[in-house]
Amino acid sequence: MKKRAPRIELTQSIESRRPLILVTNDDGVYADGIKALAKRLRQIGRVIVVAPSQERSATSHSLTLHRPLRIIKISKDVYAVDGTPTDCVNLGVNEILPRMPDLVASGINRGGNLGDDVHYSGTVSAAVEGAIMGIPAIAFSCVARDNFKYQAAGNFAVRICKKVLRQGLPPGIVLNVNIPNLPQNKVRGYVFTKQGKRDYGDIIEEKVDPRGRKYYWIGGDDVGFEDIPGSDCNAIHNAKISITPIRVNLTDHNLLTRLKNWKL
């Protein structure tokens, strides 16, 4: 009788064929958004969560260079890092995951990452770090201030992640996905968009502490957006999911051609 292969080898073989997905965020490893994203993506692959141990919103693409970092195993395939979202992707890929992931999925962020937000967002920057490493990457954000509804965002994350796992992305491209904070039946489809422009109120708020010393809060109120047809802001305003491709390479090639004619 032909011997059967050991069960552990069969299990490992099946596991090696499943997509490996690194999930991260900037709201922290315990945030509801990352739990919703990881839960849904486990339907299509093995998910390993590597996320900040606490909220690290608006850290942009910062790396921790002047102190050591620690990794804490929270549970099976869930790890916390006492650093930034970019640190998490670096440690996830180079230290924690058994191999290079097939996809980096960042989010689901508490709040939108529309227009200029992408320059400050730790959620988007984590995805950008994945793209820099040559890994297809997607950032997900739920556009609201509170009472977040992650069902529509989670459902759409599965759809678009399946597509990217099958088809891939061009090198150096990140998909920035913003989902309206609406029940599934109220979302009016999806559109591919360009980066819009948000407007903010007073950026700096000055206050005085009990000892009479001034201190400052940075972060203005969102007072609207510019009406730019085809933009991510317009899509959200129309209750649609926006999908914006972002380049890692920031070179303006059209201007570069003109600059070559400058005489300095």
> How would you name the CATH homologous superfamily?
Survival protein SurE-like phosphatase/nucleotidase
Q: Based on Cα principal axes, name the global outline.
A: globular
Flag low-confidence runs: 1-14
Question: Rg to the nearest angstrom?
Answer: 20 Å
Structural class: alpha/beta
* CATH architecture annotation: 3-Layer(aba) Sandwich
Strand content: 25-35%
Major β-sheet profile: 9 strands, mixed
Q: Which oligomeric form is depicted?
A: single chain
Strand order of the largest sheet: 3-4-2-1-5-6-7-13-8
CATH class value: Alpha Beta
CATH topology: Stationary-phase Survival Protein Sure Homolog, Chain: A
Helicity, as a percent range: 25-40%
How many strands appear in the DSSP assignment?
Answer: 13
SS summary, helix count? 7
Our measurement of the CA-to-CA distance between the termini, rounded to an integer number of angstroms, reads 83 Å
Q: What's the domain count?
A: 1
Quote the average pLDDT.
91
Task: Please provide the ordered H/E string of secondary-structure elements.
Answer: HEHEEEHEHEHEEEEEEHEH
Describe what this molecule looks like in 3D.
This protein has 264 residues and is α/β, with parallel strands linked by helices. It has a single domain, classed as Stationary-phase Survival Protein Sure Homolog, Chain: A, CATH 3.40.1210. 28% of the residues lie in helices and 27% in strands. It has helices at 7-17, 32-41, 85-96, 122-132, 151-167, 232-237, 253-259, and strands at 20-24, 46-52, 71-75, 78-81, 103-110, 137-143, 173-180, 190-192, 198-200, 204-208, 214-218, 222-225, 241-247. The strands form 3 sheets. Strands 3-4-2-1-5-6-7-13-8 form a 9-stranded mixed β-sheet, sandwiched between helices. The chain has a two-stranded antiparallel ribbon with strand order 9-12. Helix 2 (32-41) packs across helix 5 (151-167) and helix 3 (85-96) packs parallel to helix 4. The radius of gyration is 20 Å and the shape is globular. It starts with 6 loop residues before the first helix and ends in a 5-residue tail after the last helix. The model is unreliable at 1-14 (pLDDT under 50).
